[in-house]
## 1
Amino acid sequence: METTNFFSSVAALNITGDLQVTISKGAESNWIVSVMLNNEQCGDDARKLIPPLNLRGSAEELDNGFFERITAPIQTASGLMVDMEGFMKQLEEVKKQSAMEKEKADRERKEKEAREKKYKEAMQKVDELEKEGKYRDAWMKVPDPSDYPEQAEAIRKRKSSLSAKFAPDLFGSSTIPVAEGQPQKDEANAEEEGNEENAETTEEDWEEDEETNQ
C-alpha cells in the first residue's frame, strides 16, 4: 500500500483549532472537498461568519495541489481567530476593570456622602448649643479637622469663633461667658479707682479730727 504524507502535511500547517474536511464525489469523476477551521476557544461569534474553503477537482489534481491551495487561507483563518480570541479576552478584562472602577467610584461616593452627612449633623448640633449659650459645649462638638480635611479651614474658624465667646474662670469654677460688645474693666483701672476712694475717705476723716481738736 502506498504511503501518504497527508497528516504530516496537516501538522505542518501549524494551525490552532479543529480542521474539518468534508469530501464528497461530484460529477465527471471530480471530487468536492470542503475545508473549515473551527476554534471553540474563540469567544467571538464572528468566527462563525468565516466560510469554508471549497475545492473541486480530480483525485490527481487534489493530490498535487490540495495543501498548496489551502495552506495560506487556513493559516490566515487560524491567525484571525487567534487574534479574535485574544481580543475577546482583552475585552473581557477591560469590562472587568471597568466594573471594578465603577464599584470603587460608587463606594467612594457613598463614603463621601456619609461623611458629609455626619459633618452636617455635627455642625447642626454646634449651632443648637451656640444658640443656647453653651459655647464650651458647642466648641467641644465641633468636628476634628483631621477627619474632614476638605472642611479643615471652616472648622478652625468655627472653633476660634466659639472659643472667643467664653473665658476661663481663674478660680476654678465653671466658665464665664463674655457678653458680646460688653467692655471689660481693666484691673489696674479698678485698683486705681479703689485707691482714690480710700484717699478721699482718709482726707475726710483727717479734716473731722482737726475740727474736733479745735
## 2
Amino acid sequence: MIGVDTNVLVQLFITEEPQSSKSVEFFAARSQEDPSYVPLVVMAESAWVLRRKYKQSAEQVGRVIQSILDSDDFVVERRDLVEWALVNYGHTRIDFSDLLIARASELAGAVRVVTFDREAAKRIPGMELLK
C-alpha cells in the first residue's frame, strides 16, 4: 500500500495539469493487492480543491469521491465518515470537509463544533456559530 497526497489524487481527475500523466500512471499501477491509501485529510482537501480551484460542481465532486470509494485500488481512512459525508453532501450546499469535521467531532463525543462559517452553522446539525 502506498499513501497519496492531495496534489497527486486531484491530478488523477484533473488531467490538464502538467504532472497529471505521472498521477494517472501511478494510479494505473495500483490494484487491490497494491492499493493507494487515502488519508481522511486528503479526501477533505481534494473535495475543497476540486470545488474552489477547479470550480467543479458539488455533483462532480461527489462523483469523484464515489469513484474512489467504489474502487478496490483505494483504501480510504475512516471510510465510514467519508460515506456519511458523501450521503449528506448531496443534500446540502456545505463543504464536504465541514461535514467530515462535524461527524468526526460527534463520533469523538463532542457536544458541538464551533465555527465562524455562517453557512455551516446554519446547515449542519451540531455546528454552532462562535460569537
## 3
Amino acid sequence: MKEDWTAISDIGKTFEGKILTVEDYIAIEDSYIKAIQTIFEFFNLKYLKVCDVRKSFGDDQFLDLISRRKVKYTSDTLEIYNIAESIEKLEYKDLDLFFRLMLREDIGAKIFYPRKLKIFICYDYLMGIHTSRSIEKIIPEIEALGLFVEAF
C-alpha cells in the first residue's frame, strides 16, 4: 500500500515525497472526466438522469471555501453548483462541470441511465459504475488515462 492523496483538500501536501500540485490534481480530475465521457459515448447515451442531489455546503460556506482553494472555479461551474438541486437530466455538455463538483466533494448525487448504467462518485476519489453490459472493450482506453480499473 502506498500513501496517496484522496481529495482536493490534499493539494499542497506531500505524498510519497512529492507535493500534490494544482496541475497534478487537475490532470487526474481530467482523466476521471474523460473516463466518464468515454463510458457515456460507449453506451450511446443522450443524457444521464440525476436525483437526490445534495450540496455539501451552504451557499455562503461554499463561496468562502472555494475562495481559499488553489483550484479556481469557473463561472459555469458556479452556475451548475447553484442549480444542481434542480437538474434532472445531465447532457454530455454538462458532464464535465457536474462531475468535477462531485469529484471535489462539493455535491453528491445519484447518476444513472435506467437499466443501462449507474455511476458512483464516493469519498477518497473513488468512482464506480454498474452496467447492464460489459465495458471490457473500453477498459484499455480508461487505463490509458492512468486510471486503475478493478472488476468486481
## 4
Amino acid sequence: MLKTAVAIFKGPQQTKEAIEEIQGESLANSKVSVVVLSEYLHQGQYREEIANELAYYPSEPFFDKYHTWLVQAPPFLVPNLGEVVVAGPLASQLMHQPQGRGLAEVLLSYGLSEIRARHYEHEVRTGHWFVLIQTEHEKISAVTNTLRGYGGRDIEKWNKELDHPTYPKS
C-alpha cells in the first residue's frame, strides 16, 4: 500500500539535496514530484544548476532513472497558481485536469483534506517548493525524516484510505 508524504521547502538546494538522498537510499524511486512557480525556479545561488537539472527532457519516455534529479514537463499554466514547473507524476495529473481545476484538486486525490490542499497550493503561490512523494508504507517514516532533515516544513504523511493525516512523530 502506497503512502504519500508532502513537504514545503524554501528553495531549490534543500529540495534537491533531500530528493537526492531519498532516491539514493531507494526510498521512493520514481514517485517523486516537485511543483514550483516558474518565476522562482531561477532564483538563488544555485539557479543555473537547478534550472539545468530540472530542464532535462528525456528522449525516451519509459526510462526510470535519469542523470538528473527529476524529469519535468515544460512550464505550463495551472489555475490559482500561474505558470509552474512540475517534475514527476504530478506533472501529468496537473496537465490533464478539467479546466479550472488545479493543484488543490489533484492533492485531494492523494487523500489530503481540502484545507490542507489549499494550504499547500498557497505555499506554492507564495514562492515555496512543494514536494510530494509516494512510497511503500514501511519507507514513509524514513522519507519524512529525510525531508525534515533537509529543512522541509509542513510535512505530513497521508494514506488515501484515511480521511486524516498520519502525523510523523517529532
